[in-house]
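How a chain folds remains the central question behind the approach discussed here. This step matters because it turns folding into a mapping between discrete strings. The sequence in question and its structure tokens are set out directly beneath this paragraph.
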Amino acid sequence: MPEKTDVLLEKVSDLNILYKHVTGMMLQEHGLSHSAINLMKLIGSNEYTLKQITEHSKLDKSTVSRQMNALVKKGLVTKTTGRDKRYAYFTVTDEAQQIYKEFHAHMEDKFETILSGWTQEEVHMLTVLLGRLNRSMTNRI
């Protein structure tokens, strides 16, 4: 089994590098980072505190804080104080939601091109197996 695991780890690592490269090119157009786009997706149309964002994103508090402040400065996220002044609430602006929609559509187009030589069965099988891998990783870490 170790030999199979080694090959699998190499393939997952290669996929991660390639995925970051593809997404990085698209994010550069908007001056956003991977963390920023993931946080915009996570918040969506909700309102979250910094603590909630940190818990849901599985990022460390300093990264989330830095990214949220950058998004606020860019006008992509609004920060409001609740009744309890200790808590700030973050929401994604309409502009940010539009940017995310464009990014997502661009990613879908890119992956349709990448997978253009694949059959529907192959795409379905990859989707199922990646979902299974994600669930296994989530349940075992």
The longest helix spans residues 2-30. The chain has a mean pLDDT of 91. The chain is about 70% helix and 10% strand.
